[in-house]
């Protein structure tokens, strides 16, 4: 077999392939065998029809077509490997010559990854937020913990903000009670903003045994999006009581003996969280600067497919789970469809550029992924997808997605290498030393490529 590669543009090539006819022998034999199993000829047992009879009765052309269709993928792959091409997507194949007993010639046009030159990235400088934990942060954290240990007690007065009510609800559209518009014994905290728009104003000032009505647009169910008249019966009013902030509370809510120890632990945890956020911010900003350094041509078909995939995931999974369609989502976001399309295209381009550049860095820096690193990444992906590690691992193996996971880890390591070479300072002008760079980098890369959102829809 002979093959040649012609570069059509930075992201597309044409392969020209010539195959001596004798190399089609195995495919011709397979074609005769397949046709033998599909046809019957009087005087011959099924599967025992000679090749010359098949040629006479059904035509040599049918055999050649079957053989060529069987052989083309193998010859195409050999030509790709011989040309050391990194192809993207499916090729457009055109058979240019087929001489029985002599020659098969064909061309294949296919998108390829562009050759990239990665410049020196050690000069990248970014600024991130300084890690500061204020007294207000600590008080807020402790107050959130206190809220979790609140108790309720019935009161004989009108409902007010913060009270926990027991409600019976009935929704009507056009005067008819909806089949799925009745709910009994619903627990609701006044001021939480949950359930339905307008319910807080309706129930405030109502005592147990009282009734209120209001109109609201339904967020789900059979009449989703329609205006409904909602009747709400308040069957009980309970006041929330917060525990005193003292040593007894610390012992109740934690493993600590004193409130001071609990606050010190809260400060420590808040500092760790802010350091993680700082590292993520550094990764994101370094990636943005890296993308500016490299010119990346993008194949049109690849970009189109990526845009369609992102739209499909949003509309059919994320919005579907929330009971929204694209029009309602755009209305909530205050965006036009043109603005949405432009943003989606921009995000898709960023995702493709991120993958191309970091894959090139993986090769340049000769980065490898250990079994331990792959296992840790798999555990994190399983957690974010809502599946158990065993279930996720099985799905990955059965779907042939192990190379994809390896690529994700490798690209995370590549970004971590760039961040390590960059200068990261906080808003106080202090140089920042980052920890767990590989893990935070994997998260940043997943967000840039759009795989984090996708994985959440897979479960």
Automatic annotation (TrEMBL):
Pfam families: FKBP_C, Trigger_C, Trigger_N. Signal peptide: none annotated. Involved in protein export. Acts as a chaperone by maintaining the newly synthesized protein in an open conformation. Functions as a peptidyl-prolyl cis-trans isomerase. The gene is tig. GO terms for molecular function: peptidyl-prolyl cis-trans isomerase activity. Belongs to the FKBP-type PPIase family. Tig subfamily. Residues 162-209 form the PPIase FKBP-type domain. This is Trigger factor. Keywords: Cell cycle, Cell division, Chaperone, Cytoplasm, Isomerase, Rotamase. The lineage of its organism: Bacteria, Bacillati, Actinomycetota, Actinomycetes, Kitasatosporales. It is an enzyme of class 5 (isomerase). It is found in: Cytoplasm. Consists of 3 domains; the N-terminus binds the ribosome, the middle domain has PPIase activity, while the C-terminus has intrinsic chaperone activity on its own. The keyword Disulfide bond does not apply. SUPFAM superfamilies: FKBP-like, Triger factor/SurA peptide-binding domain-like, Trigger factor ribosome-binding domain. Its EC number is 5.2.1.8. It catalyses: [protein]-peptidylproline (omega=180) = [protein]-peptidylproline (omega=0).
């Amino acid at each position: 077999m002979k093959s040649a590669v012609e570069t059509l543009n930075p992201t597309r090539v044409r392969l020209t392939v010539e195959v001596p006819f004798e190399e089609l022998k195995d495919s011709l034999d397979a074609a005769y065998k397949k046709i033998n199993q599909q046809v019957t000829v009087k005087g011959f047992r099924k599967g025992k029809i000679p090749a010359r009879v098949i040629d006479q009765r059904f035509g040599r052309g049918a055999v050649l077509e079957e053989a060529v269709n069987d052989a083309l993928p193998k010859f195409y792959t050999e030509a790709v490997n011989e040309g050391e091409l990194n192809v993207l997507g499916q090729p457009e194949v055109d058979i240019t010559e087929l001489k029985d007993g002599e020659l098969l010639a064909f061309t294949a046009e296919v998108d390829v990854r562009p050759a990239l030159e990665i410049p020196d990235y050690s000069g990248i400088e970014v600024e991130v937020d300084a890690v500061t934990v204020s007294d207000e942060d600590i008080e807020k954290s402790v107050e959130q913990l206190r809220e979790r240990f609140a108790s309720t007690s019935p009161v004989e007065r009108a409902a007010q903000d913060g009270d926990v009510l027991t409600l019976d609800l009935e929704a009507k559209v056009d005067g008819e009670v909806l089949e799925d518009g009745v709910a009994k014994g619903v627990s609701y905290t006044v001021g939480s903003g949950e359930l339905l728009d307008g319910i807080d104003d309706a129930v405030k000032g109502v005592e147990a045994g009282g009734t209120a009505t209001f109109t609201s647009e339904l967020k789900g169910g059979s009449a989703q999006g329609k205006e409904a008249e909602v009747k709400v019966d308040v069957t009980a009013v309970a006041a929330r009581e917060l525990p005193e902030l003292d040593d007894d509370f610390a012992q109740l809510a934690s493993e600590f003996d004193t409130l001071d120890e609990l606050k010190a632990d809260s400060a420590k945890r808040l500092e760790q969280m802010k350091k993680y956020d700082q590292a993520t911010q550094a990764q994101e900003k370094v990636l943005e600067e890296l993308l500016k350094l490299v010119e990346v041509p993008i194949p049109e078909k690849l970009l189109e497919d990526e845009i369609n995939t992102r739209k499909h995931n949003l509309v059919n999974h994320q919005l579907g789970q929330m009971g929204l369609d694209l029009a309602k989502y755009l209305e909530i976001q205050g965006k036009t469809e043109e603005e949405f399309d432009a943003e989606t295209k921009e995000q898709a381009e960023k995702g493709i550029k991120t993958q191309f550049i970091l894959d090139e860095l993986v090769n340049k820096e000769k980065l490898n992924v250990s079994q331990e690193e792959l296992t840790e990444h798999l555990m994190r992906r399983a957690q974010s997808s809502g599946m158990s590690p065993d279930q996720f691992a099985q799905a990955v193996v059965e779907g042939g997605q192990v190379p994809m996971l390896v690529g994700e880890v490798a690209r995370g390591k590549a970004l971590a290498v760039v961040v390590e070479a960059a200068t990261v300072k906080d808003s106080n002008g202090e140089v920042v030393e980052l920890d767990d760079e590989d893990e935070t980098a994997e998260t940043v890369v997943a967000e840039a490529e759009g795989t984090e959102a996708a994985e959440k829809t897979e479960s």
